[in-house]
Amino acid sequence: MSIHGRAGRPRASSRETLAEAACELFLERGYDATSVADITQRAGVSRSSFFNYFASKSDVLWSGLDERIDRAVSDLVTIREDRDGAEVRRILGHLVADFAPDSLALAMTNSSAMGLDDELEQDAARRQARLAAALADLARRSGVTSLVADIVAATWAAAVLAAVRAWAESGAGRGSVGDRFVDAVEAIHRLPWAAARE
Q1: Which of 117, 140, 163, 187 has its CA at a distance of 20 to 30 angstroms from the CA of residue 56?
Q2: How many CB atoms lie within 10 A of CB 148?
Q3: Which of 2, 23, 12 is closest to 109 using CA atoms?
Q4: How many other CB atoms are found less than 10 A from the CB of residue 140?
Q5: What is the Cα 33 distance to its own chain's centre?
Q6: Cα(182)–Cα(156) distance, rounded to whole angstroms?
Q7: What is the chain's mean pLDDT, rounded?
Q8: What is the pTM (predicted TM-score) of this model?
């Protein structure tokens, strides 16, 4: 049955329709065998509509999280300093709040079936690096040495991406990304050598 013609279901936006079509095709054919043209044909929208929303077919999966990371980075760059990390915790807490199951969660739980294992790993690393760069800049503005700033920023950015993955893999309808992020933060505090002194 057509995505548009399901009885009782409100008509989705073109963006949602494209994401749904992409996931269906990735499951049916695999990621590499699916083209942007295949996605737009399945969704019943034009190629230009696709590129109004997404830069590439992998961005279909990440667009929801990308918007959250964009907001977090914008917030992080406006803070002059954050000596105790309270603003970082607030911003990252907002980033992970109120996730709903989406195409990224579906892809993470079906990555092998979709042929997405390598693609997801590379895409996650890019997002993690972008968030880490903004966190490291704030840490340096807050008086943290560059070495420590890079380490702490990478750790907190990894906690965000790990929380999203853990939430998706546990069944995205159960629990929340925020709960998994709290778990990740607690894990940071329990890391070996966390209390070590120079």
Answers
A1: 163
A2: 12
A3: 23
A4: 16
A5: 23
A6: 11
A7: 89
A8: 0.85
Structural contact between residues 150 and 133, judged by C-beta atoms closer than 8 angstroms: no
The 3 state secondary structure assigned to 72-115 is: HHHHHHHCCCCCCCHHHHHHHHHHHCCCCCCHHHHHHHCHHHHC
pLDDT in tens, 22-74: 999 999 999 999 999 999 999 999 999 999 999 999 999 999 999 999 999 99
What is the C-alpha to C-alpha distance for residues 88 and 44, in angstroms, rounded to an integer? 42
The span from the CA of 94 to the CA of 75, in Å, is 11
- Type of residue numbered 128: Q
What does the pLDDT average to over 65-93?
Answer: 95
d(CA 41, CA 123): 25
In the predicted model, what is the mean pLDDT of residues 103-109?
93
Q: What token pair was written down for 99?
A: 């996730």
Return d(Cα 58, Cα 24) in angstroms, integer: 14
